[in-house]
Amino acid sequence: MRVKLAKSAGFCMGVRRAMEIVLSQANKGKGPIFTLGPLIHNKQVMDMLRSKGVTTVEEPSGLSHGSIIIRAHGISPEKRRALKETGLRVIDATCPKVVRVQSLVQFHTKKGGTAIIVGDPKHAEVIGIVGYSRGPAYVVGTPDEIYSLPQLQKPFVVAQTTQNKETFRRIVRKVTERFPDAVVFDTICDATSSRQAEVRSFSGNVDGLVVVGGYHSGNTRRLMEVARDAGIPAQHVETEKDLDRKYFAEMEVVGLTAGASTPNWMIRSVARELEGIKGKRENFTWNAIRKASRFLLFSNLLISAGAGLLCLAAEVLTDNRPNWIFPTIAFCYIYAMHVLNILLDKGASAYNDPQRAAFIADHKAFLLALGGFSVAAGLIISFFQGVNTFVFAAALTASGLVYGLPLLPSFGKAARSRLRIKDIPGSRSLAESLGTVAVTTLLPNIDRKADSLTAIALAGFALFFLAFAKAGLFEIFRVQGDLIVGTESLPISIGEKRTVTLLKVALLGSACTLSAGLLTGFLPRFALAMTAPVAAMFLCVLAYERRWLYPGLTFEAVSEFPFYLSGFLAVVAAVLF
Ligand code: SF4
Q1: Is 73 in the pocket of ligand 1 (CB under 6 A)?
Q2: Which of 88-92, 162-166, 565-569 is predicted least confidently?
Q3: What is the pLDDT of residues 183-229, one digit of tens each?
Q4: Which atom of ligand 1 is nearest to the CA of 12?
Q5: Same domain, 34 and 176
Q6: ipTM score of the complex?
């Protein structure tokens, strides 16, 4: 079954921000945490938050110790005052776009205007917005309600941020008919309208649509309405277990979207389940290819082979004749480090990639055995390359182990967690890229003459930046799971936008280093060819930033392409020159 994933599916900015605020508070472990009302309408996410010690309360009465978080919907000023009086620490996670609507209502009603709010009068966001009005405010949900309004002074219109665009347009038409001087503010959030527009755009391009999200989530239900209006056969599911497999087996291409409160891991689970349904015209070969690529990705064999190929490129870049020995060591080392990662995983993979987590759980013994074999094979091969190479390879393996172990004796749980390298913010991407450079560039050159040191350093920097960009991109893919389990990754520490900028700068650094090496004559002409994998990685970062591709298996495979390309170019260069 082919699945077309909507680019806008999943957490919107406001929900993601609120989740990050709640999870970072929960990970600090400083006293009890409450949210005023459910943070989002998603049962699975709420269960997860409960397991992290976050309690939902409808009223703060009786509470006096801990922190209380205002969710993305916001609250009225009156309620905010009442919260402050409780003595609880108030943390505001109101979405900035909702704050804008609140400010508009406050500002214009202060000047004598009357607010007409298009939305659901019972919705928490609307109740909060009404609270900002200095005079009477009127909430309307249908065009006909406009005729029952009294004569209004300086009327103006705002909308609940998740309103249906079409309903808003129809209501505004009636408002301007009845109150020609009314001022209209279209406050419908782009995240909502683009999500709805994308559903409409599926019409004629897919055989059916799956909408993932809580059954009580208003914006998810509205997506179903939009699909129905557009004539697309659709099913609303909360999890992959709710999918009607028989219904979709009749189809060939299925669209997939999700409400603003649906986390990535749930969307991915549904996508995988759908992909697993044998579509109308699928054949045996296609299924076999898909299963094989899944195995290669889940088992990390594809990633490790990428490191081996990068090693080939490093050899050509440092004027070595490429052979199979060091790429094999690189493959073994990277594979072993990934197995180590499996052991160190605090459970984030279950949230980031449930299918991969299930694969690992099913094949753990096999993967660990393969990891152990890789360590042994890597060390044995390096032993035959000389003492220095062996010692360096052994030191690299040991440093991989130290990464996850407490550095100093611990005196309690808190102390222990602070003393591991892996808990230093951003250390994972740094360690991964340093390890890649060490095994692909330094190890093969450990016994070389001193006059090639500059070339090794330049190649090392160029490949470090390239590897760092890939590691950073994967960190972004894993951000939701890392947040849940409290791993201090790069995007969590400095934010996703800054991480993307940093990755671009790193790739620019890689291209500049290669060019400098080429111009000064320290690096061979192959340095010019290596700018192609750097450009390919830049495109991967751009693909994420512009949402051309959605994080998932396909994107992971695509992100490996620059390493494979570098290996291919190295082989071509070795054959030609
Ligand atoms: S849908 Fe828009 S307004 Fe509502 S929380 Fe998300 S980003 Fe904010």
Answers
A1: no
A2: 162-166
A3: 999 999 988 888 889 999 999 999 999 999 988 887 898 899 999 99
A4: 6
A5: no
A6: 0.99
Domain shared by 184 and 303, yes or no: no
Q: Cα(232)–Cα(198) distance, rounded to whole angstroms?
A: 12
**Cα 24 to ligand 1 centroid, rounded to whole Å:** 20
Could you confirm whether 145 is annotated as catalytic? no
- Is 129 a pocket residue for ligand 1 (Cβ < 6 Å)? no
Pocket of ligand 1 contains residue 95 by CB under 6 Å? yes
Confidence category of residue 569, pLDDT binned at 50, 70, 90: very high
- Enter the DSSP assignment of 104: H
- Contact residues for 74 (Cβ-Cβ < 8 A; gap 6+): 94, 95, 98, 99, 102, 124, 125, 128, 129
Ligand 1 centre distance from Cα of residue 188 (Å): 9
Whether residue 249 lies inside any domain: the answer is yes
- 313: containing domain: 292-576
At residue 133, the pLDDT reads 97
Q: Do 399 and 489 have their domain in common?
A: yes
Domain count, the chain: 4
* 470 and 322, same domain (yes or no): yes
Q: In the beta sheet, which residues pair with residue 35? A: 56, 69
Question: Could you tell me if 274 and 293 are in contact, meaning their C-beta atoms sit under 8 angstroms apart?
Answer: no
> Which of residues 46, 71, 94 is at a domain's end?
94
Q: What is the DSSP string of 260-321?
A: TT--HHHHHHHHHHHHHS--TT--HHHHHHHHHHHHHHHTTHHHHHHHHHHHHHHHHHTTPP
**Which residues, listed in sequence order, are joined to residue 195 by a DSSP beta bridge?**
none
**Which DSSP string corresponds to 368-430?**
HHHHHHHHHHHHHHHHTT-HHHHHHHHHHHHHHHHTTSBSS--SSHHHHHHTBGGGSTTHHHH
Both 87 and 236 in one domain: the answer is: no
Examine the fold and report which residue of 188, 215, 235 is the final residue of a domain before the chain moves on: 188
Same domain? 129 vs 269: no
Q: Is residue 307 located within the same domain as residue 269?
A: no
